[in-house]
Amino acid sequence: MDALSHDELARLTPPERLALISQLWDSLEAEQLPLTAVQRAELDRRLETLDQDRRAGTTWEALKAELGRR
């Protein structure tokens, strides 16, 4: 694949560039994304607390209702 030149990239609009970034990111598999040990540990910690955090949270509907009462 030929890389896009700087001029070709500069001609893209910001939304087009963001769409390109999104397509590139989405094309990667999880095992292709390098994580440091610290990043992996943080993700593992968040996964461990996900269910607990979800139970302690509130729904969008409940939040909207609360804000509507204020």
In short, what is this structure?
Helix content is 70%, strand content 0%.
Structural account:
The protein is an all-alpha fold and 70 residues long. The protein has one domain (6-69). 70% of the residues lie in helices and 0% in strands. The chain has helices spanning 6-11, 14-26, 37-56, 60-69. The N and C termini lie far apart (56 Å). The model has no long low-confidence stretch (mean pLDDT 91).
Structural class: mainly alpha
Oligomeric organization of the protein chains: single chain
* N-C termini distance: 56 Å
Q: Work out the helicity level.
A: over 70%
Radius of gyration computed on alpha carbons: 20 Å
Overall 3D shape: flat
Instruction: Give the low-pLDDT segments.
Output: none
- Largest sheet at a glance? none
Provide the domain count: 1
Write the element-wise H/E pattern from the N-terminal end onward: HHHH
Averaged pLDDT: 91
User: How many separate helices?
Assistant: 4
Features:
70 residues, mainly alpha, 4 helices, 70% helix
Topology readout:
Blueprint: H1 6-11, H2 14-26, H3 37-56, H4 60-69
